[in-house]
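It would be a great kindness if you could assist me with a short task in structural biology. A protein sequence and the structure tokens that stand for its backbone fold form the material at issue. I should value your view on which stretches of the chain appear to form regular backbone elements. The record follows directly beneath this note.
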Amino acid sequence: MKKDIFTMEGKNVVFTGGCGALGRVMVKALLEYGANVAVPEICDRFDESFDEYKAQNKLKVIVTDLSKTESIRASFEEANNFLGGIDVLVNCAAYGGGAGGKSCEYRLDKIDDDTWENGVDGTLNVIFRCTREVIPYFDKKGKGNIVNVGSMYGLIAPDFDIYGEDIPWSPPTYGAGKAGVLQFTRYCASALARRNIRVNSITPGPFPGITPATDMEFIGRLSNKTMLKRTGKAEELNGALLLLASEASSFMTGTNIVVDGGMTQW
């Protein structure tokens, strides 16, 4: 039988932001491919389809405030004890507006210092804190793997014509923070290679959550910005995630995989 190079059997993963709209789908993919997953989150928002994994001790939510170093440090210790070691960190969490369907002040002349600092903290600083705190656990194993989640708005500016006046624009903190994530990924890849730690990133394009209240005319305008003329489905991030989280990417570091239907290519 051929070996599945994308298998996650025996891999222990800490996945921040795992209860989010995209995070839930990616966590499910890791579990289906055999991983054990600890999810530092503000609260448990997994539905009943995850209950079997919890019952098998394959999945655990650890209540964590990712804005606080002390909370991250304690949650990673708990994750390490639950998992029996940490092999992979997926940095998917984001907060502070512009992420997870939340909006915040986006008009440059109206943004105060607290709004700016909270927005950058929730996109960039949180990844720094989690990366710093996981390194000792990787050092104990002699290797490690980090997958950061960026955004198309870390590569390009929003086209504000598609938003109009009624739909909140993506705030500048989100794009600035996500651009920083991509550079931080490259920096960490270079700095941590000598410690046998790989660091890569995934950049999702347009993956809007669509509900009965969603403005479908906006979705149409957004779709037309992509070469494939549609927005993404959450499960379409799983291939890139499984590649980077598994040994299939054993000779990859400092890489950014863009999953955007071609949006950033023209």
Q: What stands out?
A: The first strand starts at residue 12 and ends at 16. The beta strands are 12-16, 36-41, 59-63, 88-91, 144-149, 197-204, 256-259. The chain is about 35% helix and 15% strand. Helices lie at 21-32, 51-55, 69-83, 113-141, 172-192, 216-223, 238-245.
